[in-house]
Amino acid sequence: MTDPVSASDQAVEPAEWVNLPDLAERLEIPVTRVHQLIRDRSLLAVRRDGVLRVPAELVSTPAVRKHLPGVLTLLRDAGYNDEEALRWLYTADESLPGTPAAALAGDRATEVKRRAQALGF
Q1: Which terminus of the chain has fewer Cβ atoms in its 10 Å neighbourhood, N or C?
Q2: Could you tell me the pTM of the whole model?
Q3: CA–CA distance from 119 to each of 48, 76, 102, 105 (Å)?
Q4: Distance between CA atoms of 37 and 52, rounded to whole angstroms?
């Protein structure tokens, strides 16, 4: 029998997803630029129901959350793929409180970056 996982250790799916054409419209940039942001690893996109989507919470109109590209780089340097990075960003952490993704929107973004950097060691 395995130990039960506490609710704080469980990843949650983002509340809202945005497909790439809608995101391009929201950011007022061409959809090709959205694809470039994903290729440059400045934006996280994963397939859901066969469609490439971005968690809406990671985008602050009119731009990507300020610290997101740095956090994504740190997670990739620690060996995380996109799905794993998404899971990390959306796993509740009582010490933040909330999820790292939610913390990126506030004054705890630097702490999220510090924690992502520690994953590489």
Answers
A1: N
A2: 0.83
A3: 26, 10, 19, 21
A4: 13
